[in-house]
Amino acid sequence: MRKTSTLSLGRRAALVVSALGLALAVTPVADAAPAKATANTAVKVTVTVKGPNGNVFNGSVTTKGHSVTTASGGTHKCDGTNNEANTSAGPTPTAALDDAAKKQGFTWDGSWYPSFDDYFVTTIGGHNGGNAYYWNIAVNGEATQVGGCQLHIKAGDKVAFTWTKINN
Questions:
Q1: In this structure, are residues 166 and 133 in contact, taking their beta carbons and an 8 Å threshold?
Q2: In degrees, to the nearest 5, what angle opens at C-alpha 90 toward C-alphas 83 and 129?
Q3: Which residues contact 73 (CB under 8 A, 6 or more apart)?
Q4: Could you tell me the residue range of the domain that residue 56 belongs to?
Q5: What is the spatial distance between Cα 50 and Cα 122, in angstroms, rounded to a whole number?
Q6: CB 100 within 8 A of CB 59
Q7: How many domains is the chain built from?
Q8: pLDDT, tens digit, for every residue of 21-77?
Q9: Would you say residue 5 lies in a domain?
Q10: How many helices (H) and strands (E) are present in the chain, helices listed first?
């Protein structure tokens, strides 16, 4: 049995550490998770607002979470932290609607519900659903499961507000 000296163990350890460091330095990091966007970074999304007489708006909007003001609901934050849905602020469907309205010059309104910490969109471009219709919110073709100020959206998303008949 051959004995290994302390010096050769030290050299061996140094070689292993050096080789590992070199391998990590030249290995691509393709499998690394993408960097998270900073809190409340503006994103470009497509917003479509389809009323009973056709499109009220259809175009790109750059948006981020922000305070929203409506005639019926007042001014409240609309940044995804509503109702503790997310821990950081970000762009939301209702904030995108608000930015589209400012860009195109149409009006919208919504009632504020403190228990949900969110708006219920009641009117867009003068169209009020009343008891028969409502403004459905969808992102990428899927109806939202939370309010429009609670859901974070990301760059490239397709946000739609659609005049929808209530099924009785």
A1: yes
A2: 60
A3: 109, 110, 111, 112, 119
A4: 43-165
A5: 14
A6: yes
A7: 1
A8: 333 333 344 433 333 444 689 999 999 999 999 999 999 999 999 999 999 999 999
A9: no
A10: 2, 10
